[in-house]
Amino acid sequence: MSAQLDTDILEQRRPGAVPVIRLDRIHKVYQMGDIEVHALRSVSLEIHRGEFVAIMGPSGSGKSTMMNIIGCLDHPTKGHYFLDGSDVSQVDRAGLADIRNKSIGFVFQSFNLVPRTSALENVELPLIYAGIAAGERARRARAALGEVGLADRERSMPNQLSGGQQQRVALARALVNNPSLILADEPTGALDTRTSVEVMEIFQRLNRERNLTIIVVTHEPDIAQYANRIIQFRDSRIRRDFPVENSKDARQVLVELPRETENDEECGGTGR
Prior knowledge:
- By secondary structure, this protein is of the alpha/beta class.
- Helix content is about 40%, strand content about 25%.
- It has 10 helices and 10 strands.
- The protein has helices at about 5-10, 65-70, 95-105, 120-130, 135-145, 165-175, 195-210, 220-225, 250-255, 260-265, and strands at about 20-30, 35-45, 50-55, 80-85, 85, 105-110, 180-185, 215, 230-235, 235-245.
- The strands form 2 sheets. Strands 6-7-8-3-9-10 form a 6-stranded mixed sheet, sandwiched between helices. Strands 2-1-4-5 form a 4-stranded antiparallel sheet, with helices on one face.
């Protein structure tokens, strides 16, 4: 991370600065028949604009539930969630959908691309929901594909793309509405080593150059080292929250990694 960005983040964390995300004693309880399952127990957390955060923890620790609440996919049972200073804890489903479309970009392990739709058309989908005119949709979608290095693959169908390319299409789709927050759930879980680092290089570049707030859920300690802060969950609570000392630079790691052969790229690389 650059010294300037370090300075910017310290400035954003000054007393009185409004965090982009603030969780205040969040509880989430699911009713499973006669049994109450406590997925989150009094979780409080602040994340400021421009941070790159990795969330870790074993299955069932609460990290995915927290991501659903941060992503406005679910309501807390108790407590308050402030996004950009506004309490969205009790916003109705239609309101949450509007917030998601305008402010949050999602990236998932399974890519979630529409199979019989081109890369360009997949990236355009959030703009269709937002009511953007066709010409402007195409312009924005092409720009987003260019930002992830896929300007030459806009007509390709998902089955014509490698795993890494499909994930980059998914990332372009997350970026196309110019969100202030990117949430990525195990974005490298289905990718090989080099392709995973390439995806992390894009995240780091977006974080540094556009000051995007990025939150990545991962089981992989190596992937978490590309963030500048790690939050560890266990037993429905935050157990550790600490800065990453000397976080890895994905661009430098890529220089040091061997190049895949053509056959490797067909099996899961980016096909650059």
